[in-house]
Design brief:
With 94 residues, the chain is α+β, with helices and mostly antiparallel strands. Helix content is 47%, strand content 29%.
């Protein structure tokens, strides 16, 4: 599902205009992004949680040449699926 498809789904299910639904979806994503930038954890019950994970620098290798390269430290967002969503997806696949 793309962001545009999500906007259409929100508009259809809520009775909002597409423009208002787009504002709602954009505001939610912006709020979630800002929370992760601040280092906050986001928990959506029944769906999952988002948080940031700190990765230490390490010595990697260029796969083409085998030459060692330094990989810088980084902070990346991670998602952990909630039990309810995991169970619903598993039941849908069977």
């Amino acid at each position: 599902m793309t962001k545009s498809q999500l906007i259409d789904a929100v508009a259809a299910s809520s009775g909002l205009t597409r423009k208002n639904a787009e504002e709602v979806v954009t505001t939610i994503f912006a709020s979630m992004s800002n929370a992760l930038i601040r280092g906050d954890r986001i928990e959506i019950r029944g769906f999952g949680s988002f948080k940031t994970k700190h990765y230490a620098p390490y010595l990697g290798r260029n796969p083409k040449t085998g030459e060692p390269i330094e990989v810088a430290a980084k902070i990346l967002p991670v998602f952990k699926v909630g039990r309810e969503l995991r169970d619903r997806v598993l039941k849908g696949k069977q």
